[in-house]
From TrEMBL:
The keyword Electron transport does not apply. InterPro entries: ABC2_TM, ABC2_TM_bact-type, ABC_2_transport, Daunbcin-R_ABC-transpt, Nod_factor_ABC_transporter. Coiled coil: none annotated. Keywords: Membrane, Transmembrane, Transmembrane helix. Residues 21-248 form the ABC transmembrane type-2 domain. It is found in: Membrane. It holds the Pfam family ABC2_membrane. It comes from Methanosarcina baikalica. It comes from the Archaea. It is a multi-pass membrane protein. This is ABC transporter permease.
Amino acid sequence: MIEVIYILWLRQLKHYWRSKSRLLGSLGQPLLFLVTFGFGFGPMYARASGGASYMDFLAPGIVSMSILFTAVFSGLEVIWDRQFGFLKETLVAPISRTEIMIGKTFGGATIAMIQGLIVLSLTYALGFRIPSLGSLGLGLIFMSLIAIFFTGLGLAIASKMKDMHGFQLIMNFLIMPIFFLSGALFPLENLPSAIYFISRIDPLTYGVDGLRGAITGMSVFGIYSDLAVIGVLSILVCAIGAVLFSKIEA
C-alpha cells in the first residue's frame, strides 16, 4: 500500500517539477495581490487599526489563496488521466481505489504546500516576518490541512466529471467566493450579519484564521478551534472523496 501511494505521489511531483511554466505562472496572481493590496490598502489599514501592518494581516491570506488554487485544480489530473487512458490502466491494476485516492491527495497537497512555501518566502521580500520557529511549525500544520482539504475536494468533484472545461468553470465558481469570503483580504469583525454568517460556514475561513493566528498572533476564533474545525473537515472530505473515487468509471 505504501509503495503504491508513494509512486502516485512521486508521479504528480515529477509532473509539477517538469512544468516550469506552471510553477512560475502560478506565482503571478499571489504576487500581484501582495503588491497591489499590500501597498495599496496598507496606509488605510494602518489608520483604521492604529498603526498595525496590513502586510502582516494579508500575507497569511495570500499564502492560503495560493494553496487553495493549486490544491483544487489538482483534480484536473484525474480528468486528464481519464482522457488519455492512464486512469483506466490505474483502475484495472491490482490495487484499491482508496490507495489511488490517497496517493493523488498526498501528491496534490504536497504540490500545493510547495506553492504556499514559495509564496511565503516572497512575503519576506515585502517585509513580512514570522516571529519564531514554533510559529512557523504551527503555520505549516495549518498549511498542510488547507492543502489536504482542498485537494480532496478537487479530486472528489473531478471523480464525477469527464469534461475538463466544465471542471474549471465549476471550480472557479466555487473557489472565488470561498477565497473572498474567508477573511483573507479583510477582517471579519464588524461585517454585516449575512456576510459574517457565510464566512463562518466557509472552510477556508478557519484555515486562514488559524494560519494567521499561528504566524502573526492575530486570530478571531482561536488557533485550537480553527485546528479542530479544519482537521475534522479534512478527514471528512477525504473520506467522501474516497467513497466517490471508489465508484469512478474510466
